Amino acid sequence: MEQQFLRAQRMESIGTLAGGIAHDLNNVLAPILMSIDLLRLTSRDERAKEVLSTIETSARRGADMVQQILSFARGVEGRRMLINIRTIIEDVQHLVQDTFPKDIRFQAEFDADLPLFSGDHTQVHQVLLNLCVNARDAMPKGGTLRVSAASLEVDSNYASMTQDSKPGRYVMIKVTDTGVGIPQNLLERIFDPFFTTKDLGKGTGLGLSTVLAIVKSHGGFLNVYSEPGNGTTFTACFPAAEGLNEGLAETPDEKHPRGN
Ligand code: ADP
User: Fold this and answer.
1) Residue nearest to ligand 1 atom 13, measured at CA
2) Spacing, Cα 136 to ligand 1 middle (Å)
3) CB 197 near ligand 1, within 6 Å
4) Measured distance CA(65)–CA(152) in Å, rounded
5) What is the pTM of this model?
6) Which of 61, 134, 180, 206 most suits a substitution to test ligand 1, by most atoms within 8 Å of the C-beta?
7) DSSP readout, 108-171?
8) Nearest CA to ligand 1 atom 19
9) d(Cα 211, Cα 68) in Å, to the nearest integer?
10) Does residue 63 contact residue 27 with C-beta atoms inside 8 Å?
11) What residue's CA is closest to ligand 1, atom 17?
């Protein structure tokens, strides 16, 4: 308990510090990005345009990282609505198919009787996207990225074995890759803020800590199973909204308004 409290305190200080730095960095990056647009409009020199593109790619990557840090620092207050996970997975599927390397095959699979759940659409989207981006990075030579959603009944036996779950019905989302896997000795650290094994400038180390914070703030739980050399599965479970039907999906959830 003491340890958990200290960890929460440490996370909070890291969040505050990182948020301050990210805010300042944003102020540095914004004028760079605006100037690039301006120069592109006025320049006729092809070589200069190429250089501008390089500057823009780096500045945008920096801006993406800043956004990640800011959303981590802000915490996970959100606007709750009833979510049909199928629509979010289909959105992510389009994004992945448009932007990921072509040697990564995407498969989606859904249970027919998927329950709805109460959640923040943007945050749940972010959970899936972060997990998919990690899956992509774990498959530099290509492979299969599988996202599935199913209904899960957690009984009191199962709940007593895990720290985070309570008995009840959940929407279980699995993101599986056929990538490099995670060595046993790193499994404990991957959820720590700023822990990354990626090259400098490629990862902030905030993806999984953000995923974990979002899932927890929804009353859910998160598991990881990995076989080095064969791949990894992340399982995120969100408590189902009982007694509601599909027709209500994606409408504001009055029972769980903002920040609940
Ligand atoms: P980042 O992606 O910026 O490194 P994350 O918090 O998302 O930060 O991930 C932390 C680390 O966990 C990664 O650097 C990587 O070592 C490991 N990791 C996460 N997902 C996977 C995966 N699907 N396969 C292999 N390693 C992973």
Assistant:
1) 196
2) 10
3) yes
4) 34
5) 0.77
6) 134
7) EEE-TTPPPEEE-HHHHHHHHHHHHHHHHHT-TT-EEEEEEEEEEEE-HHHHHHSSS--SEEEE
8) 134
9) 11
10) no
11) 190
134 C-alpha to ligand 1 centroid (Å)? 5
| pLDDT tens, the chain, 260 aa long | 556 666 666 666 777 777 778 888 888 898 999 999 889 888 888 898 888 988 998 888 888 878 777 777 766 666 789 999 999 999 999 999 989 999 999 999 999 889 999 998 888 998 999 999 999 999 999 999 999 999 999 888 777 776 677 889 999 999 999 999 999 999 999 999 889 999 877 788 889 988 998 899 899 999 999 999 999 999 999 999 976 544 444 555 544 443 33
Q: Do 168 and 154 form a contact (C-beta atoms < 8 A)?
A: yes
Provide the 3-class DSSP secondary structure of residue 223.
strand
Give the closest residue (by CA) to ligand 1 atom 8: 205
Judge contact between 233 and 132, C-beta under 8 A: no
